[in-house]
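## retry 2 of 3
previous attempt timed out at serialization; input unchanged, resubmitting
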Amino acid sequence: MPTYSYECTECTNRFDVVQAFTDDALTTCEKCSGRLRKLFNSVGVVFKGSGFYRTDSRESGEKSNSSSNGSSKSDSGSSSGSSDKSNSSSAPAVATAPS
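## retry succeeded, writing output
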């Protein structure tokens, strides 16, 4: 069950309560009967592994770009579109004028 933080708007009393998702939010302070507000904190995220952001996000970005380019090129010609797809995986495709 998650832990929620509350703060009284009148006496600034702060406390944490373990509540289920289905439980109603607390509304009155136990010390002064003032109005409570729920506090929201930032979540600490830790990425573990070698090069998580640098390698993984760039690979997914290049794949999405090459697939969108490949689909537009395959509309113009079926044989040239398939050869452009194989070249785009190893190096960027270079547009050439038809001879």
